[in-house]
Amino acid sequence: MDIDYAHLGGEASEGAGRGAAKTVSFIAAVQTNQDGHPRFVVFTRVPGYTKEAVENWAGRALSPSTRALSDGLKCFGALAGLVTCHEPHVAARASRPASRCGWR
């Protein structure tokens, strides 16, 4: 399961990005098949990118047997105790380390 954050909205004059005013925060989850092709996608609105919001979302949206891949956003650290395997990847890294989850 690939998991990432997304947001919509925001006023251009008030800044941009996930901390901007008047944005709507989402968590996006994509289930892929054995070839890495997307099968299902879900966007769920969350109150913000906090560990508490991720814990609440994961409790409703993920099975404990989930193997999750996310970026390095700090709030996704909450997944570690809720799923079989959580593997964070920081996108800025030049090379990708070997998977701890046994895939990719």
Task: List the defining traits of the structure above.
globular, 1 helix, 5-stranded mixed sheet, single chain, mainly beta
Any overview of this molecule?
- By secondary structure, the protein is mostly beta strands.
- It contains 1 helix and 5 strands, in the order E-E-E-H-E-E.
- Strands 3-2-1-4-5 form a 5-stranded mixed sheet, with helices on one face.
- A hairpin with a 5-residue loop joins strand 2 and strand 3 (38-46).
- It starts with a strand and ends in a 15-residue tail after the last strand.
Q: Structural class of the secondary structure composition? A: mainly beta
- What is the β-strand count? 5
Mean pLDDT: 83
Q: Specify the biggest β-sheet.
A: 5 strands, mixed
Strand order of the largest sheet: 3-2-1-4-5
Shape: globular
Order of H and E elements: EEEHEE
SSE inventory with pairings:
Blueprint: E1 2-9, E2 23-32, E3 38-46, H1 51-61, E4 67-71, E5 85-89
Parallel strand pairs: 1-4, 4-5
Antiparallel strand pairs: 1-2, 2-3
